[in-house]
Predict the 3D structure of the following.
Amino acid sequence: MTSGNLLTDTPELYELRFPDHEHLAARWAESVLDAHGAGSRVLDIGCGTGRDAAWLHHRAGRRVTGIDTSEAMLVHARTHHPGPDYIRADMREFDLGHRFDAAICLDSALLYCHTNTDLEAFLSRCRRHLTPGGLLIAEMRNAAFFLGRTEPFDALRTDTVTRNGVTHTSRTTLRIDHGAQLLRRTRTWTADDGSPPVEQHSAWRLLFPQELRHLLAAHGFEVLALYDRPGPRTEPAWTHGIAPADTVDSDRLHLIARLTETSNT
């Protein structure tokens, strides 16, 4: 058995496993950008395969730059979702030399900041790269959802996806590392072509709504909205015109924050 991240290393498989044919994530982000009057320059932090960045670039007329640490994802993005500028950079250390009107951080990318030092560095980078009044928009798992719930940990989750005639099966378990405040995932992939299994380990920082508000305020951001649904990964999913709920109890959390006019001067 080997270790690796099969989905990160195989972007085509990632898009098959997590399809978004209706571009819900990008359309949700655009609805927020439009509602809050954001300018055209958008930074997509943790852009992955580039499908959201490219939709915003071509369909919404934004000038998008995407950053990610995975070279495989960036190569896929440049080839299959061209248009935006794609740059290899760490979300805690990037220095792009210019500012943006908004930064988006979708699909729990923010939660790869595992430590308080990571989070401080990420928010400092965002503050440095946003214009005064710029937006930070994020969509992620919600730590509050796991309070008192055991169902996410009670059963092995099995999923399958087929690529080039080969069926890949994943078996996933979750556990909470309470001391580190991390949601840890172990996922084992097998394939029906006889290739050896691949075991993948990953983790997300569990951020609670009030904790997130405090961190943002400390870095000069005003929280405009923080809610659990609807969003691109909720059930039912977001559709245009539906107002956000006033709850923060479900498994996803959606953040809209504005950098104050004086915080990055």
About this structure: The chain is about 25% helix and 35% strand.
